[in-house]
Amino acid sequence: MLRIGLTGGIGSGKSTIASIFAELGAPVIDTDAIAREVVAPGEPALTEICRSFGSDLLRPDGSLDRAALRRRVFRDPARRRRLEAITHPAIDERMQKQLAALPEQTAYALLVIPLLLEAGWQDRVDRILLIDCPETVQVQRVVSRDGIEPEDAWRMVRSQASRDARRQAADDVIENDGSLDRAELTAQVHTLDRCYRDAAG
Fold first, then answer.
1. Residue 163 near residue 132, CB atoms below 8 Å
2. Cα(35)–Cα(33) distance, rounded to whole angstroms?
3. DSSP label of 10
4. Of 48, 95, 140, 183, whose Cβ has the fewest other Cβ atoms within 10 Å?
5. 60-84 tens-digit pLDDT
6. 8 Å CB contact between 196 and 4
7. What is the largest CA-CA distance in the chain?
8. What is the SS3 assignment for 26?
9. How many CB atoms lie within 10 A of CB 91?
């Protein structure tokens, strides 16, 4: 089974592209979804987060206030690294279990890993598919989507791997700067889907 790592900066459009692959029948394993699962009530990672960053991050129902956690760690690189040291192993373990559970005849799986480079997970995949767009477009999308201030959106963009670093690491690139409509993006995904199936043999 070929493992395709789909990555890109915040607001680049990873979810849109992943959904098109899913429509073509490709299994999609989304580490953002897994990241929410591993901090659910009762999960060891949630206990460790509360121990490290404060139990006041819990909502009345016992769930994690992810926005409050983000505010607490985002401006402090040391705290962010501590959080990643708690969550990344749990995410990786669950990602590998989901991969192992796929049928043997699966040609390829799409692993959506936003922080693929930052986590050093290049060895988890066989090819890297980058969803790319200018940083100004990322900021506009994040501000519109999340209702945050532009300076906060810029801070989020700049906390991730640089655009140049991602492009250098990528085997395949889809440009998603807004100039292409969904039909054109879908055509690109169809081409890559055929390539990945052919490569898987």
1. yes
2. 5
3. T
4. 183
5. 999 999 989 988 887 788 999 999 9
6. yes
7. 52
8. coil
9. 23
CB atoms closer than 10 angstroms to residue 5: 24
Tens-digit pLDDT profile for residues 12-39: 999 999 999 999 999 999 999 999 999 9
Q: Which two tokens stand for residue 149?
A: 């201030």
Q: Tell me the pTM.
A: 0.92
Neighbours of 56 (CB within 10 A): 9
Which domains, and CATH codes, for the chain?
1-27+107-201 (3.40.50.300), 34-101 (no CATH)
- 8 A C-beta contact, residue 90 and residue 46: no
Which residue type sits at 33?
A: A
Mark residue 131 as left, alpha or beta (left: phi above 0; alpha: psi -120 to 50; beta: remaining). beta
Closest CA to 71 of 161, 163, 149, 162: 149
Q: If DSSP codes are grouped into helix, strand and coil, which group holds residue 30?
A: strand
What is each CA distance from 140 to 11, 15, 37, 46, 190, in whole angstroms? Answer: 8, 17, 28, 32, 28
Q: Which two tokens stand for residue 183?
A: 């039909």
Instruction: Tokens for 80, please give them.
Output: 């962010």
